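Hi all, posting the design record for the shared folder.

TITLE: backbone redesign
STEP: 1 of 1
STRUCTURE INPUT:
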């Protein structure tokens, strides 16, 4: 929460605005969006939908989010009528055991390895999506880690929603913690004074209709960071191992303050300060 509009909320609401324009049985299968300007959480947002093209199987819609005279967000979403086809998918690289993850989170909190519960963990408790990391230290801890993590996600209160809203729920969740992967090797967290961080663009592909009233595992990684940006990608898996969706995002992660000074010294070959 906070003064700025959460990026996942803009993605989800824009997707629902586009979905409400569909009346032919087509469902969203992909979206590509840009976060153009910071939105304010306490100001209304107007979503304007433009019909780009429509055929018997596919349709494309552009959605722009406006706050007053400022366009803060732009999305193109593609819709596809369900049809049969060849199938294959990568297997989930993590154990599909949400109860083991819940036990690990409870144990981590009881041990207090990282002192008091981090602000990031407390902030997520106010979101409508529940999150249970497979390795809590990699998500909430402050030590440097490999740039990959996985966490279980579901709606806190069952919605019984239809396929359009279920896609929107996953779209909302897909922006939660995603940029964390690119920051893990550098021992920084979103919201810290060491980094200016925000989502720049976001892409999402739906392979099946999710049921976000139930648990989904988001297995993600960051293959690259540089130039004050970081790239993350990941897959959503249902509890039975089916790949449900794929997401990719580039984010701003601009070092500042002491972190920027340390980085400048490292690039100059100077020893770090004692």
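Okay, here is what came back for every position:
SEQUENCE:
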């Amino acid at each position: 929460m906070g003064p700025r509009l959460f990026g996942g909320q803009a993605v989800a609401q824009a997707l629902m605005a586009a979905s409400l324009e569909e009346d032919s049985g087509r469902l969203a299968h992909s979206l590509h969006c840009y976060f153009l300007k910071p939105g304010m959480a306490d100001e209304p947002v107007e979503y304007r939908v433009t019909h780009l093209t429509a055929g018997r199987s596919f349709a494309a819609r552009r959605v722009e989010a406006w706050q007053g005279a400022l366009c803060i967000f732009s999305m193109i979403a593609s819709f596809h009528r369900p049809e049969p086809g060849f199938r294959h998918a990568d297997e989930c690289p993590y154990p599909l055991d949400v109860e083991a993850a819940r036990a690990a989170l409870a144990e981590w909190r009881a041990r207090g390895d990282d002192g008091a519960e981090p602000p990031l963990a407390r902030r997520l408790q106010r979101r409508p999506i529940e999150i249970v990391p497979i390795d809590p230290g990699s998500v909430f801890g402050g030590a440097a880690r490999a740039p990959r993590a996985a966490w279980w996600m579901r709606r806190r209160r069952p919605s019984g929603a239809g396929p359009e809203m279920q896609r929107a729920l996953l779209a909302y969740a897909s922006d939660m913690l995603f940029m964390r992967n690119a920051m893990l090797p550098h021992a920084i967290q979103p919201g810290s004074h060491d980094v200016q961080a925000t989502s720049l663009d976001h892409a999402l592909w739906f392979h099946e209709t999710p049921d976000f009233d139930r648990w989904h595992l988001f297995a993600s990684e960051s293959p690259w960071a540089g130039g004050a940006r970081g790239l993350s990608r990941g897959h959503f898996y249902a509890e039975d191992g089916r790949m449900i969706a794929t997401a990719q995002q580039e984010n701003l992660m601009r070092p500042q303050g002491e972190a920027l000074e340390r980085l400048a010294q490292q690039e100059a070959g100077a020893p770090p300060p004692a």
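COMMENT: Residues 98-111 form the longest helix (14 residues).
Let me know if anyone wants the other runs.
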